[in-house]
Amino acid sequence: MTKQTITIKKGQQFPLTIKRLGINGEGVGYFKKQVVFVPGALPGEEVVVEATNIHPKYAEAKIKKIRKRSPYRVTPRCPVYEQCGGCQLQHLDYQAQLREKRDIVIQAFERHCRLPIETLEIRPTIGMDDPWHYRNKSQFQVGTKKGAVIAGLYGLNSHRLIDIPECVIQHPATNRVTNIVKMILQDLRIPIYNERAQTGLVRTIVARVGFHTGDVQLVLITTKKEIPRKELLIDEIKRRLPEVKSIVQNINGQKTSLIFGEESFLLEGEEYIQEVLGDLSFELSARAFFQLNPVQTVKLYDEVKKAAALTGTEKVVDAYCGVGTIGLWLAKDAGEIRGMDTIPEAIEDAKKNAKKHGFTNAMYVTGKAEVLLPKWVKEGWKPDVIVVDPPRTGCDQQLLQTILRVKPKTVVYVSCNPSSLARDVDVLSERYTVDYIQPVDMFPHTAHVECVSRLVLKND
């Protein structure tokens, strides 16, 4: 059988029926058996498209005309939705988004896992009661347009900065702080970074709010340490934004897409702001990782608790533990928690968090789970439950092999990428049965979907 090559030409227009959503939220259709990805198109729609990019195995296209609209197509709330690209699904009704996210998980398992899809219990996606203004942190690049200071995100596949005065998925406090800081920078004529010329000072405004406390942390990311009129800048921020409890400067003089540089200085106020999840409170420093949607995080962690099904005696490993949030969520129902992470600062925070909440049954170590686990087993400490919450790339292959050797009774896999989840489950299915997969919508109006999967050791 000869391998099919793409016969579609760039600029060619043709009709297309959209069959489903792809993993990035784009519509997927087939033209003469060739896959075509169409951003903005929805399942069930009949569209006329124009091919924009041709790749060896697929084509990308843009909508020229919608002949038959999806009944679930809605008007996006955001005025710059089309240009910004930060959200992918605002044009789809929210209940339909939840159904499509479950379908994205199903597709990932059909593609990357050998288990028959009909044997898997993939539950309906847990959504939000109010899927707007849920993000507790914004990171907006700063620029100028016609002499005015603007802040926002770079447009889709471009280096054009889109000003976003009112982001509808950001907490209102972060929008307010960003807008007022823009005005202060303008009033004080503080030099704004120009990416092309690589001149100027202020690159990024980062605002993070504690949903529970209302406290805001402001980070100004600059190319160098010296800030002209610095005292005046701090005074104006304090005067116009009394809710800002922490003002931090971070220096990033590199030509890079990374937002934060290595050096941070506290300019004014507290080093941390407080955030509360359930009965736990956390101190967040400028660079500490923390879940971006606190409301859904509680639902996600409660699903982890259900999947772990602890009775009070179990030994639990929290791999990729970060600042210890998941382990501490489980600590009062566990015999002992042991967490590990490769980032020493995160482990320090995890230790502090455990101590602050009075958990004496939680221990945190810097290192890799695949190195520490065999060592602990050798010393006679064998976990009953392992919770993994890996990055988008999934679990380290060595860790998967370690789990298969150590054989804890239950593995709870928290995933932010259905494709890597399906691949890893395929490896673990050698010794584990998938009890169920529970999708959770942590980022409404985007194509992201998180899952909590419960895997149970097979009887040998």
From TrEMBL:
<feature type="active site" description="Nucleophile">
    <location>
        <position position="416"/>
    </location>
</feature>
<feature type="binding site">
    <location>
        <position position="389"/>
    </location>
    <ligand>
        <name>S-adenosyl-L-methionine</name>
    </ligand>
</feature>
<keyword id="KW-0808">Transferase</keyword>
<keyword id="KW-0489">Methyltransferase</keyword>
<dbReference type="GO" id="GO:0070041">
    <property type="term" value="F:rRNA (uridine-C5-)-methyltransferase activity"/>
</dbReference>
<dbReference type="InterPro" id="IPR030390">
    <property type="entry name" value="MeTrfase_TrmA_AS"/>
</dbReference>
<dbReference type="Pfam" id="PF05958">
    <property type="entry name" value="tRNA_U5-meth_tr"/>
</dbReference>
<feature type="binding site">
    <location>
        <position position="320"/>
    </location>
    <ligand>
        <name>S-adenosyl-L-methionine</name>
    </ligand>
</feature>
<dbReference type="InterPro" id="IPR012340">
    <property type="entry name" value="NA-bd_OB-fold"/>
</dbReference>
<dbReference type="InterPro" id="IPR002792">
    <property type="entry name" value="TRAM_dom"/>
</dbReference>
<keyword id="KW-0004">4Fe-4S</keyword>
<feature type="binding site">
    <location>
        <position position="341"/>
    </location>
    <ligand>
        <name>S-adenosyl-L-methionine</name>
    </ligand>
</feature>
<keyword id="KW-0411">Iron-sulfur</keyword>
<dbReference type="InterPro" id="IPR029063">
    <property type="entry name" value="SAM-dependent_MTases_sf"/>
</dbReference>
<dbReference type="Pfam" id="PF01938">
    <property type="entry name" value="TRAM"/>
</dbReference>
<keyword id="KW-0408">Iron</keyword>
<dbReference type="GO" id="GO:0070475">
    <property type="term" value="P:rRNA base methylation"/>
</dbReference>
<feature type="active site">
    <location>
        <position position="416"/>
    </location>
</feature>
<keyword id="KW-0479">Metal-binding</keyword>
<feature type="domain" description="TRAM">
    <location>
        <begin position="7"/>
        <end position="65"/>
    </location>
</feature>
<dbReference type="InterPro" id="IPR030391">
    <property type="entry name" value="MeTrfase_TrmA_CS"/>
</dbReference>
<dbReference type="InterPro" id="IPR010280">
    <property type="entry name" value="U5_MeTrfase_fam"/>
</dbReference>
<keyword id="KW-0949">S-adenosyl-L-methionine</keyword>
<feature type="binding site">
    <location>
        <position position="291"/>
    </location>
    <ligand>
        <name>S-adenosyl-L-methionine</name>
    </ligand>
</feature>
<comment type="similarity">
    <text>Belongs to the class I-like SAM-binding methyltransferase superfamily. RNA M5U methyltransferase family.</text>
</comment>
<protein>
    <submittedName>
        <fullName>23S rRNA (Uracil(1939)-C(5))-methyltransferase RlmD</fullName>
    </submittedName>
</protein>
<dbReference type="GO" id="GO:0051539">
    <property type="term" value="F:4 iron, 4 sulfur cluster binding"/>
</dbReference>
